[in-house]
Amino acid sequence: MIGLGTYAFFWQHSDRVDEPLSLVGAFQATRELGVELFQICDYAPLETMDDADLRRAAAAARDLGLTIELGTKGIEPGRLTRFLDLADRFDARLVRSMLNGPDSRPTLAEAKDWLGAALPAYEAAGVTLALETYEQVPTDHLVALVSSLGTERLGICLDPGNVVARLERPRDAVELTAGHVANVHVKDFAFARQPGWVGFTYGGAPMGSGLHDYPHLLDTVRPRERGINEIVEHWLPWQGDAPTTVRTERDWTRITLDYLRSTP
């Protein structure tokens, strides 16, 4: 299933716009685009909502017919327990995270211990934990960690754009992780020369215009055959003013959805 995530609304949620979009507003915008899946990923207000706010948000998602996934940073057992509780509130069947959190940088041995403590509860609840590919951890190490724990409820959230900062090739990350992918983050990316030709910047691009070989990912991972959700997000730089930035963000979302819907 194709979905949108909070990173597709990054600037619309931010305090740099006059009227930041609420979470429920993002739900509504998602359904207006004909999308039935939303990933609440790294959305800080989620963790400070009280019970009433959580009930209202979950009810809004259900009323709109949205399937919800969740996302956080870190794998401390307490954090994973908290997000399993939130998953229950939203009827979410997937929680995306990453090894490093705001206050933790576990070794691989510590990560294995922490995950081992948390995963039985995920297995019992039927919720999958998907660890994202990031530059902080070599992709082959992440694959080895996931493999070592031997449960179908632990997988990888594949984002090939992130690994470039480790000088890994996105295609290599796709091929290394293919058998363990449980979730895909969809965005395009490109290099551009800095002014004066003194180096490059690496950032987002409209889907289909950058360096991401998405057909290779589709052929290798086969997300649609395997029931793996594809979540749209962007690396969109600030465009100089709020109206231009919001308009561009919405345009990129439509471009990405059109691209995904046009691919077999």
TrEMBL record:
Single GO MF descriptor: isomerase activity
Native organism: Jiangella asiatica
Domain Xylose isomerase-like TIM barrel, residue spans: 27-254
Highest taxon of the lineage: Bacteria
Name the UniProt record assigns to this protein: Sugar phosphate isomerase/epimerase
Record bears the keyword Isomerase: yes
One Pfam match: AP_endonuc_2
UniProt keyword terms in alphabetical order: Isomerase
